[in-house]
Every structure is written in structure tokens, then in C-alpha cells.
Amino acid sequence: MKNEKNNYDLIVVGAGPAGMMAAIVAAQKKQRVLLLEKLPHIATKLKATGGGRCNLTNTLDKEQFMAHFGRDGRFMREALEAFFSKELRTFLESLGVETHAPDGFRVFPSNHKSTTIIDAMQKEMEKLGIYIICKQKVTKILIKEGSIEGVETEEDTFFSPRLVLATGGMGYPQLGAEGDGYPMVEALGHTTTPLYPAMMPLKVKESWVGECRADTLAKVEMKVALKKYKKLSAKGDLIFTKGGIRGPVVLDFSREITPLLEKFQEVPLLANFTKGMNEEQIRQHFKTKLAKDATYNTTLRLVESLLPHSVALALCHLAEVEPDLTLSRQKGKHRERLYQLLAWTPLTVVGHDGFKMAMITRGGIRLNEVNPHTMESKKIKGLFFCGEILNIDGPCGGYNLQWSFSSGYVAGEKS
């Protein structure tokens, strides 16, 4: 016999941005909503987003925004039409949260604190009478005659004809993302794509990067040096680490690299550290410097006009030029090698630290099994998905959070 107090119009599993949004929208329609979270507190991962600054969305239009998600970005169209960046900012403003875009692109809460968003959404959920139960890990989805009946947790059973699954991916398991939702939906007949850690630092074979840890390079362009994948590229700031690389360009590019790494074990990259300059432009730059300023009397000084000292010295050693000699006194082949390295420096990705260092997951529930207009399963009536559990992932810059809010809005509205 069902416990009447455990009956709800809608159950939402996962109190991240997608789940909270779904719960709020459904409750605004006067539904009796239960929000279940396995951790002791709601929105743990959201709290840590962007180092706690919370890059919510960005100022791109819908077409540009979708393009950054690749081919699968088209799935987002209906959700973005319903609830995009303008609607998100208006919604937050209605909760008392002001937002701004200080660089004209990335949108943050005006005080750059993720806790502002969490506190405002929690207050709204309380006002709407949403039942929030933390430390409740869902272990099974209950189905009756092809429709949702409820969920079992480690401690209790809850009933509802509609369920929103917002359990996230597998990135940052210490913040609760352990991929709980995947086996539960696979048991119901859904399928998932292969899952890879994404938006994370990468390890490289080259030892010289460890000597460059003091320096960050701006506007680095990276591309894959494999013929079949040569169109894959990314741009942004790069930071060297003891055994690898990180920074915005690496976080973005890792989405493409981790699947290749599983396939090839090593992934060769080419990186331009000189803000897009080619070999000829670098030659001309050196000629101009030498003609105008006598202090550029060593090869190292010339390279330092383009790069920080540690990186300049490392590339001199790679090219086998003598740093303290003038450029004209270097051996021709070594001088040419220096130009080549300054235009495109080879790096070889050999590993990563897995999901424990991944901000997001690449892969998820197959999109052709979900109705993009409603976020409802095509297999199970009353089952809705939103956020990272689906096979959609974007780069840094507010893309993934906006998708969480947009898909959560639709799931809450249509459930």
C-alpha cells in the first residue's frame, strides 16, 4: 500500500541547476513537487563553478551558441527558444539576483558569487512549497505498464506519475557527480553513448613544459596533428604544469582529446604560442627588432620579444640554437627549426587524471531517445531528462550552465 504522504505530482532527482529549475517551474504550476538530492546540501557542484564565480551564460545569439556544441547542438533549439540567456537573466532578476557581463561575453552574478544564485533559488523553492530532501540517493526508478510510478531510495519509496532525472554526469565525483542516472535509465531500455571525462587538464610527454610553470600564454591556438582530425582546434589561454598543460584552451580542447586518447593512446598536437604568427611573420618580426634596437643582440632576447623567458629558453633548446649567440651566427638548419617551433610547437598528450579532475562529461543518454520539445523520454511515459545526463556538452564560457537551466525549464514546464 502506498504511503499517501509520499505521493507527489512530480519528483525531481538531483538538486543542481537543471533539477532546481525544473522543480521551480513545475511548482509554479501548482504541482506538488519533491526534490531529492543524495548529498547533504543542494547545488554542491554549482557552488564550485568557475571557482565560485559562476559564469551562468553568455551573450551569443542562439545560432552561435548552438554551433559551439557541434552537430548535436541542434537538439537544443526548442529549449533555447523557450528559455535562453535573456529569460535566465530576467528569471534571476525576479529572484533578486542582478547579473552583468563585464567582458561583454560572459555573464556572472554581479557580485561574482555562486552562493547568491543558490540562496535565491533555495528561497524560491521554499516559497513555492517544494519538498526538498537531501541525503536521499535514488537507487531504482519504478515503472508500471510503461509509465513512471515513482522511485526507490536507500531509505524510502516515493510515488509520482512524472519524474525529472537531473543526476548530472561523472565529472568531479567528490561533488556528487557519479553517473548514478546512467545505469538506472539503461535498466529501462535507454542507451548511453561512451562516456569520457572532459574540460580538464592534460598530461604531455614533453618534459620541458615543467620548466615553464611560472608563465601563462595568452591566445594560444591548438590543433590535432592527425590527418583525419586536423580540423579539430581551439583557442585560448594556456598554463603549463609540472607534467602537462591546463588553462581555458586546454579545458575546451580536452572534450575532443579524451576520446582520441582512448583510441590512439597518444595524441599529437601543434600549438601556436605566438598569437597566430606564421614563420614568415616571425622572420619579419625579428628583422624589425634587430633594425630598430641593438639590445636584441642574442637569439634568446629576440625570442623573448614574443614569449616569456622560460618558454623562449625552452624553444631555443628544442631548436638546438645557442641562446646567447646572435641569430645570424646560428646554424641555418637550427635557425629554420626555431622559426618552425615558434609557429607550431609540437606537444604529445599521453594522459589525464580521469573523471576526478573533469568538470563535465562527454557523452550521455542518446538524444534520439528524447523529445527535444519536452525533454521527455520516447521510451517511458512520464520520464524527463535535463542537464548533463544527456549527450550534450559545450566549451567553457557559460554554455553548459545555460543548457542546464534551459533543459531544466522545459522539463519542468512540460512535466
Can you offer a commentary on this structure?
- It is a single chain.
- This protein is of the alpha+beta class.
- It folds into 2 domains: 239 residues, FAD/NAD(P)-binding domain, CATH 3.50.50; 152 residues, no CATH class.
- The chain is built from 13 helices and 19 strands.
- It is elongated.
- The two termini are 25 Å apart.
- The mean pLDDT is 95.
CATH superfamily of the largest domain: FAD/NAD(P)-binding domain
Q: Tell me the number of strands.
A: 19
Write down the overall geometry: elongated
Number of domains: 2
Across the major sheet, the strand order is: 12-15-14-13-16-17
- Strand residues, percent: 15-25%
Low-confidence stretches: none
The number of helical segments is 13
> How far is the N terminus from the C terminus?
25 Å
- Write down the overall mean pLDDT: 95
- CATH topology (fold) name of the largest domain: FAD/NAD(P)-binding domain
> How large is the radius of gyration?
25 Å
Helix content: 25-40%
Largest sheet: 6 strands, antiparallel, barrel
The CATH architecture classification of the largest domain is 3-Layer(bba) Sandwich
Given the helix and strand composition, which structural class is it? alpha+beta
Query: Could you name the CATH class of the largest domain?
Result: Alpha Beta
